[in-house]
Structure formats: structure tokens, C-alpha cells
Protein 1
Amino acid sequence: MRRWGFWLALAGNLAAQGMGGGASALIWPAQGEYIGSSQCALCHPAQAKSFRVNGMHRAMAAIGDCDILQQHPRMTWSDGPYQYLIEKTEGGYRYSVANGAERADATLRYAFGQGKAGQTYVFEKDGRYYESRVSYYRELNGLSLTVGAQNARPADILQALGRLMSPNDARDCFGCHTTGARRGNALQLEKFENGVQCEDCHSPGAAHIASIVDGKPKPGTIRNLRGLSAESTNDLCGSCHRTWETIALLNIRGPNNARFQPYRLTNSRCYDPSDQRIACTACHDPHAALVTDAKAYDSKCAACHNAGNTAIGKRVCKVGGEGCVTCHMPRVEAPGSHHLFVDHWIRVARKGDAYPD
Ligand code: HEC
Ligand code: HEC
Ligand code: HEC
Ligand code: HEC
Ligand code: HEC
Ligand code: HEC
Ligand code: HEC
């Protein structure tokens, strides 16, 4: 394992802040005032238009705008004695659970996840937030247990309905799936944007706008994010996709960690912290849709794996062919997720090999 020095420093730092949560709180942009992505779109129409088709844009929706629920106005599922129902009513989407003797219900408030893999619902009771115990999964085109819910039997009917989130849990949940709901270490739901938007990555924009007096903004008023190294990009994207350090600290082992791309990529022999050719942004345009044509990634590999690169020397592919990622970035099912995540630990993956970790 690598970089233990940093790991220890981070552990100390998190402990000092009383944090053990999923979010990498160290680089959370908290300074300044949010102005909203519709403002950015006025002067940066190209990025605004292409970002609309990126899945991050739809990482969370208010329940009334949720496509999946509109397409599935009634969904049922059962787990042992518990019968689940999500149903469209005049007052919104009612979510209930009954076990013959008891019943609990709530009106859903927020839909988390664009639904490419799955979608989980959040509701409120007595001023506290709960995560639904069942989620929608694309692969099933219906409901099943929320990831993590299989680990604990509910002690009562309310627990069967959902998991009560601690204030920190709720803050982190909204922090990664919205823009501006998390302010520093606090959660506020008065004013924020659904989904990951411009100011999540670029930092709040008020100072940038204020500095534009002659058509040119003052440098340093907004993060330009250009030319970041692989390591700095891992830190930026990893503030939500989780950094190597976060996964090591939380000790998440096995195929469960396939969904944490910065962690997996860092473990690959292709990874060089100072090289931009292996940064997340070398393969993913943060303002455009995820590219799903495997061949489109060949040129990204060839940036390093080419005949002229004497540093890699003899390591050339004897199997070869187009679509390098189909063999070298295998798809792995994270248990309970009903989704095959692309493993970012680029490697020679042979049939029957154990999952490297
Ligand atoms: C009133 C117009 C205007 C608005 C609104 C605006 N920008 Fe800009 N922005 C500019 C101009 C002008 C530049 C300089 C462009 C150049 O030098 O090519 C710029 C530059 C940038 C840069 C590059 C900064 C650099 O140092 O190179 C980023 C990133 C950026 N804007 C993001 C945003 C985001 C995010 C928002 C919304 C929060 C936003 N802008 C809102 C006009 C605007
Ligand atoms: C503020 C949190 C946040 C940051 C920062 C962030 N992401 Fe994401 N990203 C998400 C969430 C949440 C999703 C899941 C969207 C969904 O499926 O609902 C996601 C999804 C994605 C996807 C899949 C999109 C799709 O259509 O399936 C890619 C690719 C991605 N992110 C790349 C990046 C890269 C590259 C960076 C850094 C430049 C980055 N992300 C930074 C939160 C973030
Ligand atoms: C540290 C940031 C972070 C936190 C905290 C977080 N998420 Fe996510 N979430 C992500 C990212 C990033 C993805 C995209 C995963 C991918 O496609 O690689 C995601 C994906 C999802 C998905 C899509 C389905 C899936 O399995 O990928 C759902 C649903 C979801 N999150 C719900 C939640 C809920 C509910 C909470 C709070 C209890 C939460 N998330 C907390 C970052 C976060
Ligand atoms: C997931 C993180 C992420 C989100 C969300 C995001 N950006 Fe960016 N943006 C980046 C990165 C990374 C770069 C640097 C790209 C590069 O290296 O060329 C960048 C660069 C830019 C630039 C400078 C382009 C240049 O080459 O001068 C502008 C302007 C910009 N973004 C505007 C926006 C606007 C407007 C939005 C919202 C519609 C937005 N960004 C959303 C990550 C993001
Ligand atoms: C060498 C190229 C490469 C690099 C570098 C890379 N990715 Fe990917 N990524 C891919 C490929 C290929 C896919 C699969 C696209 C598809 O769905 O067909 C993918 C898919 C994803 C997805 C969708 C999740 C899923 O499996 O459904 C997310 C999120 C993502 N990448 C985030 C990141 C982040 C964050 C980084 C930086 C730590 C990163 N990627 C670096 C090639 C790359
Ligand atoms: C930043 C440069 C860079 C990029 C981009 C890159 N690699 Fe690598 N890759 C390397 C280096 C360096 C090694 C290690 C060579 C050695 O140890 O001799 C390596 C090793 C490998 C190995 C052998 C790994 C092992 O564990 O034995 C495979 C397979 C591989 N790369 C495939 C790919 C594929 C496929 C892509 C594109 C998805 C890619 N690489 C992108 C630099 C890169
Ligand atoms: C059909 C599956 C497949 C495709 C497509 C493929 N590879 Fe491979 N690759 C393999 C296998 C299997 C090995 C291990 C060969 C051996 O040594 O037995 C390998 C080995 C490698 C190695 C390591 C060589 C060494 O000596 O350690 C590199 C680097 C590599 N591939 C890069 C690539 C690149 C770049 C591409 C795309 C141009 C690519 N591969 C396409 C299956 C594939």
C-alpha cells in the first residue's frame, strides 16, 4: 500500500475535526456566495449546454420532477414480512410499508441518483431525514433493498420504512448530490440547486461576477481547474467520488470499492500522480456526456502505450486490438448495487483472478 504518510496525516486531521464520514471535507469549497448555474450559462453557453447531458447534472431531483417515478406511478416490493408500496397520489408520492400488524408511511421529498444504476428516496419526519429502505434499480426496472440495508434487520416498522440519517449523513448526502446545500460543515435546504452544477467544481461564483467590470474578470476569483495533475484531479473529483485516502481510511474492501474510481485508478500501475495523461479529465470531459463507445478511449491509452514510449519499453499488448478498455477495465458488480461498475484499476485481468485490492 502506498502513501501511508498522507494517510496518517489525514486520519489525524479527520479525527481532530470529529469527522469519519464519506466526504473528503478537506477541500470542500465553502467560501463565497453561490449565484446559480443559470447565471454562468449567460456568459458560458457552450459549457452550460453540453453539461446538461452529463449525468451529474441529474444527480438529484425534487420528487415532482423525477422521471422514473413519473414512468412508474405504482411500484411494489416485499422483503420477508414487509410489503412496500410507492404510489402517486394527489398529495404527491406516498411511500408505505406494512407487515400485517403495523403500517408506516411518508411523502417522498427527494430522488437521489439519475437512475442509471439506481435511485434512492429521501423523506422527512418530525424535522429529521430518512433514506428509503427500498430503491429503484434500472436492471430490475423496479424496487429492491437499498445498498447497505441488507446488513441490518429493522427493529420496528419505522426502521423498515427507512434509515434515520444523522445530521452529518444528511449533510454529506446533499453535499455530493446538490450544489450549495452544504455550506462548510452545515446543511441548509432553503436555497440550493439540484444535482452537481458549475459551482460545485468551480467554487461559488459571486466574486467572479463582481470582478467583471470591464468585460474581464480578475484572475483567481473562480477556480479555472485547467491543467491539473492526476493527483489534484483525483482530489477534486474524489471530493465526491472518494479519494484513495478516504477509502483506505474507511477500510472499504472487495468489489464494494469498484465504484470509487479515484481509489481504483491510484492502485493501477498506469497511475502517475504528476501525469495529466492519466487524470480523470484525460478520459472524461467534465462538461459533456459520459462516452460509452469503448474504442473512443483507445487514443487515451495510446498517449502512453505507443511504440515511441521507451519508458514503458517492452510492455506492449500481445493480444491487442481495438477497445483496450473492454479487456483492461473489466466491469465489476458492487454487491447489492445491481450495476456493473467499470473498474478503474487498469490491469491485465484474467478469468478466475481474484479481485485485486
Ligand atoms: C457576466 C459574464 C460572466 C458570468 C455570469 C460568468 N462568467 Fe466566467 N468568465 C467570464 C469572462 C469574460 C471570462 C474570461 C474569459 C476568457 O478570458 O476567455 C470568464 C472566465 C471563466 C473561467 C476561467 C477562469 C480563468 O481564470 O481562466 C471559468 C472557470 C469561469 N469563467 C466559470 C464561470 C462560472 C462557473 C460561472 C457561474 C458561477 C461564471 N463563470 C459566470 C464571464 C462570466
Ligand atoms: C460535488 C460532487 C461531485 C464532484 C466534485 C464530481 N462528481 Fe462526478 N458524479 C457525482 C455524482 C453524485 C454522480 C452520480 C450521478 C448519478 O448517477 O446520479 C457523478 C457521476 C459522474 C460520472 C458518470 C456520469 C454518467 O452519466 O453516468 C462521471 C463520468 C463523473 N461523475 C466524472 C467526474 C469527474 C471527472 C469529476 C472531476 C472533474 C467529477 N465527476 C466530480 C458527483 C460529483
Ligand atoms: C461523498 C459523496 C457522496 C455522498 C456522501 C453520497 N453520495 Fe450518492 N453518489 C456519489 C457519487 C460520486 C455517485 C456516482 C457513483 C458512480 O456512478 O460511480 C453516487 C451515486 C448515487 C446513487 C446512484 C446509484 C448508485 O448505486 O450509484 C444513488 C441512488 C445515491 N448516490 C444516493 C445517495 C444517498 C441517498 C446518499 C445519502 C445517504 C448519498 N448518495 C451520499 C457521491 C455521494
Ligand atoms: C465536475 C466538475 C465540473 C463541473 C460541474 C463544471 N466544470 Fe467547468 N471545468 C472543470 C474542469 C476540470 C475544467 C478544466 C478543463 C481542462 O483541463 O481543460 C473546467 C473548465 C471550465 C472553463 C474554462 C474553459 C477553458 O478552457 O478556458 C469554463 C469557462 C467552465 N469550466 C465553465 C463551467 C460552467 C459554466 C459549468 C456549469 C454549466 C461548469 N464549468 C461545470 C470542471 C467542471
Ligand atoms: C484511461 C481512461 C479513464 C480514466 C483516466 C478515468 N476513467 Fe472513468 N471511465 C472510463 C471508461 C472507459 C468508463 C466506462 C464508460 C462506459 O460506460 O462505457 C468510465 C466510467 C466512469 C464512470 C461511470 C461509472 C460506471 O462505472 O458506471 C465514472 C463515475 C467515472 N468513470 C469516473 C472517473 C473518475 C472520477 C476518474 C478519475 C479518478 C476517472 N473516471 C478516470 C475511463 C477512464
Ligand atoms: C500516463 C500514462 C499511461 C496511460 C494513459 C495508460 N497507461 Fe497503462 N501503464 C503505464 C505504465 C507506466 C505502466 C507500467 C509499465 C511497467 O511497469 O513497465 C502501465 C501498465 C499497463 C498494463 C500492465 C499492468 C499490469 O498490472 O501488469 C496494462 C494492461 C495497461 N497499462 C493498459 C493500459 C490501458 C488499456 C490504458 C487505457 C485505458 C492505459 N494503460 C493507459 C502508463 C499508462
Ligand atoms: C481482447 C482483449 C484485449 C484487448 C482488446 C487489449 N488487450 Fe492488452 N492484454 C490483453 C491480455 C490478455 C494481456 C496479457 C497478455 C499476456 O502477457 O499473456 C494484455 C497485456 C497488455 C499489456 C501488458 C504487457 C506486459 O508485458 O505486461 C499492456 C500494456 C496492454 N495489454 C495494453 C493494451 C492496449 C493499450 C490496448 C488497446 C490498444 C489493449 N491492450 C487491448 C488483452 C487485451
Protein 2
Amino acid sequence: MKSFQLFTAAFISATVLFSSCGGSEEKKEEKKSEEVTETPANQTETHGTEIKPGEVTVTTPLNAQWVSSGKSIYELKCQSCHKLTDERLVGPGWKGVTQRREPHWIMNMITNVDMMLETDPEAQKLLEQCLVRMPNQNITKDDSRQVLEFMRSNDGVK
Ligand code: HEC
């Protein structure tokens, strides 16, 4: 009988502990979302608005400054998953990507990868091959244009 009482007591205190723990976590989470709304825009995820066909113009000769800043972005945020050859690493190699894809498609893939993986059949095919979801890399539209210029240069455009 004594052990039964002990057990009940333990059970009750465990329940109390558990629920109070849950309660405080809820509070923490509330606080978190408040904090998020207060953080400056540059700390939240960047999703661009969808870029429409024809919205991006590509010209020759290449903009050398964009090529070079596009290259820096590549080295910092893309290189771990993308090679500049046609060989796949985590994601497809970039060689020939500007011939396979429209400029606006590439920029949407860079700025709105979640939207692309949900709605675009070509992006979904890549996901089936690579089995890894490309993460949002918080790239702005302007930066994605510079990466595109770097890709064009990698594909031999002068
Ligand atoms: C964690 C790995 C990872 C990183 C980092 C990454 N990607 Fe990707 N990327 C992928 C995968 C995987 C795919 C194929 C689609 C999928 O499975 O989500 C892909 C697909 C692409 C495609 C389409 C390629 C094609 O052949 O059509 C482009 C363009 C692209 N990524 C650009 C970028 C850019 C630009 C960056 C850096 C700013 C970047 N990716 C960073 C993994 C990554």
C-alpha cells in the first residue's frame, strides 16, 4: 500500500512537473515570436517575389563587377554543394546551366527555392535526382543577378 501511495505521489508530481515544463516552454515560444517580429529585416529569411519571364535581361559583354561579386557569393554560399563542372556534388554542377535554363528560372531557384520545389516540375525533377532540398540561402534579387552573371561567365560568355 505504501509503495502504491509513493507511486501515485511520484506520478502526480511528474505530471505537475511535465505540465509546468510545457507551460514555460509555451511562454518561451511566445517570447521568441515577439522577438522575431522585432528583429531587423536582414535577420529573417529573405524570399524574393517571383521573377516573371522576360523580367531579366542578359547582355554582352558581361558586367565584370557582377561576375566578380557573383563569384564571391558562389564561394561563400554555393560552393559546398555545386561544382563549376557538369559533375554533381550535392546539387547539379553549374556547367551549362545557363543554356539549360531561362535566366528568370535560375534567379527564382536562387531567391525562391521553396516555391520552385513546390510548384516547378523541372525543380522537382532535380530534387528526385539529388534527394536533398536546396536550402534558402537568403540571397536578394540583385545578388542572384550577380550569381547569374558569374554562371554565364562560367559557361564561356564574354
Ligand atoms: C546544401 C546544398 C546546396 C547549397 C548550399 C546550394 N544549393 Fe543549389 N541546389 C542544391 C540541390 C540539391 C539542387 C537540386 C534541387 C533540389 O534537390 O533541391 C540545387 C539546384 C540548384 C540550381 C538548379 C540547377 C540546375 O541544373 O538546373 C541552381 C541554379 C542552384 N541550385 C543555385 C544555387 C546557388 C546560387 C547557391 C548559392 C547561393 C546554391 N544553389 C546553394 C543544393 C544546394
